[in-house]
Amino acid sequence: MKTDLGLEASALRAVGVARRAGRVEIGTRAVRQAGREGRLAAILVARDASESVRERFERVRLNTGAELVACGDRGDLGRAVGRGPVAALGITEPGLAELVLEALQPARVGSVLDPVSILEA
Q1: 54-97 tens-digit pLDDT
Q2: 106: which DSSP letter?
Q3: Terminal Cα distance for the chain, rounded
Q4: Structural domain contains residue 27
Q5: Domain assignment of residue 59, given as a range
Q6: What global pTM score does this model have?
Q7: DSSP of 2-26
Q8: Any idea what DSSP says for residue 117?
Q9: 118 part of a folded domain
């Protein structure tokens, strides 16, 4: 299932709101640490992230219950938070995570986007 680019743009704008609120972990290391600490509400993984990164965050999702979505590429995620390319972002505030996930609503299935969309590169 491909996500509509307009929906992704809306979701990435919502990520910017979460960033300004200080509720976004940036980069794979920071997101994994937030997962270990039980602070994640949602994880966004770049569509062009490596297979090992995608698999790692699927395990984080299983361990934390955080929603996992593929959204944009590394450049898109980085621009959303005012940084260079990043493979993953973690949203730590449930209300802000829901704002991001609602922006992707038509592509959302249950608690996770269609796993095929995460594996497509």
Answers
A1: 999 999 999 999 999 988 899 999 999 999 999 999 999 999 99
A2: G
A3: 12
A4: yes
A5: 5-107
A6: 0.80
A7: PPPHHHHHHHHHHHHHHHHTT-EEE
A8: H
A9: no
Which residues on adjacent β-strands are paired with residue 32? Answer: none
H helices of 21-92, in order, are 28-36, 51-64, 74-80
In a domain, 44, yes or no: yes
pLDDT-wise least confident of 8-17, 33-42, 69-78, 88-97: 8-17
**Residue type at 18?**
A
Distance (Å, whole) CA 94 – CA 91 = 8
> What tokens appear for 65 in the block?
């219950």
When divided into structural domains, the chain yields a total of: 1
Do 107 and 1 form a contact (C-beta atoms < 8 A)? Answer: yes
**CATH number of the structural domain spanning residue 14:** 3.30.1330.30
- The CA-atom distances, in angstroms, between 110 and each of 13, 36, 39, 61 are 22, 23, 21, 14
